[in-house]
Amino acid sequence: MEVSRLTLERWALGDLPDGERASLEAELAQDAELAAHAQRVKASVLAAANDLPAAPTWAGADDGAPAGGVVIEGPWGARRIGLFVAAAAALLALGLGLRPPPASPPDVAFRGALDLQVQLVRGGNASEQGMLITAQAGDRLQYRVTPGQAGWISVFDLQDDGVLSTWTAPREVYAKQTVEGAVVLDDYAGSERVFFVFAAEPIDEAAAKVALESAFDTPLATLEGLPGLAGTTQRSLLLVK
Amino acid sequence: MTTLDFDALYADYAPAVRSRCRAICGNVADADDALQETFIRAWRARARFDGRHPLAWLQVIGRNTSLELLRKRRPWVDDPMVWLKAADPTSVDPTHRAEAGRLLAEFAIEDAAMLRLRHAEGWRIHEIAEHFGTSQRSVRRRLERLEKRARALLHVKEVA
């Protein structure tokens, strides 16, 4: 019998409505293994209730300043010019190398199927960007992509000379898991379109190139998505130098 | 929601959120930082909360906060066997300890957390899937891949 951990936690907290509690306890009475597991969850929750830290001070917590808990930092050190994709980590952190830190609080609401946040870092200063970005060689473009469902994220860059490259290889993600990446822009002088592709199956560079074959004569300015990739959700931005 | 509402929310649900933060972070200090940050983020996002399923809402924020903290602090660096809850970390062969640290450093943060939840905390597959918002099949596949690479260190844990 599978009972969600959330249900067991609510049971441990006494938060289940009477009907659900009675139903769960009837199941526990019939399944010793589940009952033992439920007791472990309960013990964990009750142990966590001991010496519980005081609640944060809500007043003043709206200013977006670090809350005294996680101070996000990111290991944004020297990066080679060219392509750099950091699956990781540290960009969440928008801290190191991104002074001043963003004023907006962390986003916990996922507004759509594919949430995208982009920053441009120049001379140590980060600025939030829209979908049309004027950039120059040496700028660092940082992005955070968050799908609403589980699937695969890929990020591709298409130069206006037709050269396609992969910025983030297909990466499997959980629902609402954020994928971060960063690229130090090279000295390519033309325009570039960056495609953020979310799909149920991985979309690799070969598939992206096939998709682009049908759009060879479409200007980058109007090519807002890779055509012909059924079932994908896409966002894109235009880089102009 | 008012500050009083949030005081009540904290009183009601902080133990469950803290329990999960501990499970992921692997130590009390980091878990308490994650707990505080979780509720601060929830407070800031209160306008977008529809009032339904508060614990589920908080646990999603707590998961993301804990993973961010894990990514920053990488608590296994000091002793990966302690982080993985080896029964007797001091008796572990230093070679295996170093190997465990190297493997964990190579794993994606979510994968390291998944491995810990499964092998150190005894979470069930469906619970891990629920926590990460993915399918059980995906969790099994990921764990199989991780366990294949980490077989030596998991063996160490078992016999310790």
Explained architecture:
The complex is a heterodimer of chains A (241) and B (160). In chain A, the strands form two sheets. Chain A has a five-stranded mixed sheet, covered by helices on one side. Chain A has helices at residues 5-13, 18-30, 32-49, 205-213; strands spanning 114-122, 125-129, 132-134, 140-147, 151-159, 164-173, 179-184, 192-199, 233-240. Chain A is α+β, with helices and mostly antiparallel strands. Chain A is elongated. The longest helix of chain A has 18 residues, at 32-49. Chain A is 20% helix and 27% strand. In chain A, a hairpin with a 4-residue loop joins β5 (151-159) and β6. Chain B is an all-alpha fold. Chain B folds into two domains: 3-73, Rna Polymerase Sigma Factor, Chain: A (Orthogonal Bundle); 77-159, Winged helix-like DNA-binding domain superfamily/Winged helix DNA-binding domain (Arc Repressor Mutant, subunit A, Orthogonal Bundle), CATH 1.10.10. Classes of the chains: A alpha+beta (241), B mainly alpha (160). Chains A and B meet through α1 and α3 of A and α1, α2, α3 and α7 of B.
